[in-house]
Design a protein that fits this description.
The chain has about 170 residues and is an alpha/beta fold. The chain has one domain (about 5-165): P-loop containing nucleotide triphosphate hydrolases (Rossmann fold). The protein has 8 helices and 5 strands, in the order E-H-E-H-H-E-H-E-H-H-H-E-H. Helix 1 packs across helix 8 and helix 2 packs across helix 3 (about 45-65).
């Protein structure tokens, strides 16, 4: 089974994903790093050169081509805009939405430009949060609310959920 972690930038998709991969003896695939490897460019440079729509196309195309087994997949937060990519990820994996509060995201995120966050012109961080949250919920097989939980507790919750899926097969 593959597991795809979705959620806002800074929610811990990569951190939680790596911890879960170690605990569950699975592989780990960071889609942002895959994009950089395949394009030879930093995410912020792709956004600067191709604009948000161009970046989303690159992200969607690369995510749609993922073919792995027994892997935790951590795409960027903007993957929720790419319906075909999300359809593919849903076909090859279970989707875990790591739900973070706006306040926690704002505290953690740092510089959105340096981070390579795909944000529409004129959008605030709040606008981005409000637009994406319903999309993450739409695609999620399970929602893990991070409020008041340590990364280890979140990993254990996801692991318990996957064990229930396996047991019910």
């Amino acid at each position: 089974m593959n597991i795809t972690m979705i959620g806002m930038p800074s929610c811990g998709k990569s951190t939680i994903g790596v911890m879960l991969a170690k605990l569950a003896a699975m592989g780990f695939l960071d889609v942002d790093i895959l994009i950089q490897e395949k394009t030879g460019k930093k995410l912020k440079d792709i956004i600067a050169e191709a604009g948000q729509d161009g970046f989303l196309k690159v992200e969607g195309d690369i995510a749609s081509s993922i073919d792995v087994q027994n892997t935790i997949i951590a795409p960027g937060g903007s993957i929720c805009y790419e319906a075909e990519a999300m359809k593919h990820l849903k076909e090859i994996s279970k989707i875990v939405y790591l739900k973070i509060s706006y306040e926690d995201m704002e505290q953690r995120i740092g510089d959105v430009t340096d981070r390579g966050v795909a944000m529409p012109e004129g959008f605030t961080l709040r606008d981005l949060f409000n637009e994406r949250a319903p999309l993450y919920e739409k695609y999620a097989d399970v929602i893990i609310d991070e409020k008041g939980k340590t990364p280890a507790e979140i990993v254990r919750e996801i692991k318990n959920w996957t064990e229930q899926i396996e047991k019910n097969r």
